[in-house]
Write a structure and sequence with these properties.
alpha/beta; UDP N-Acetylglucosamine Acyltransferase, domain 1; 6-stranded mixed β-sheet; 4-stranded parallel β-sheet; 4 helices; globular
């Protein structure tokens, strides 16, 4: 990529929100999603994202590894579509590999490397990502920490969080 192309790309990204940028480059996106600045593979049109998802600073790949075998077959290129269902959360720095489908209501933990498809209603974590519990189990383990700030403004949320008792915060 030339220096001019990189400069133009940075300007475009600064103009568009992460979701608008993804749509602009060809990612198929549903409604009401929250997206951080994600890395899209060179074939963003092979990625489909459902509705009501939250993608943090993750990376989604649709190909890889072809260069290593081009001495055998100079035309070699293999791709995999990535499909993300509805109500999916993908944590920071997670890597989603080619050919993966993530079912509805799934949670991908931060830093996970997702090499296989994830069924609906499951929490996965690790490298490679493995199921750790169901969404229902995740909720039941964490509902005692619910401070009910969803929908509040940033300043209202700050007031609540600065007043809440220490036992209302997740501890590891």
């Amino acid at each position: 990529m030339s220096i001019i192309s990189r400069i133009v790309s940075r300007i475009q990204r600064s103009i568009f929100s992460p979701q608008r940028w993804a749509k602009h480059i060809g990612v198929n996106i549903g409604e009401d999603n929250l997206m951080g600045k994600s890395h899209w593979s060179s074939e963003p049109y092979l990625v489909t994202i459902g509705s009501h998802c939250q993608l943090t600073t993750c990376k989604i790949f649709t190909h890889g590894g072809g260069q290593v075998v081009r001495h055998i077959d100079p035309t070699f290129d293999a791709f995999g579509k990535v499909v993300i269902g509805d109500y999916v959360y993908i944590g920071a720095e997670a890597l989603i590999m080619p050919g993966v489908t993530i079912g509805d209501h799934a949670l991908i933990a931060a830093g996970s490397v997702v090499t296989k498809s994830v069924p609906s209603g499951i929490v996965v974590a690790g490298n490679p990502a493995r199921p750790i519990c169901s969404i229902e189990e995740y909720y039941n383990r964490n509902k005692r920490y619910n401070v009910k700030t969803k929908g509040l403004s940033s300043s209202e949320k700050k007031k609540v969080l600065l007043k809440v008792a220490d036992e209302m915060f997740v501890k590891k």
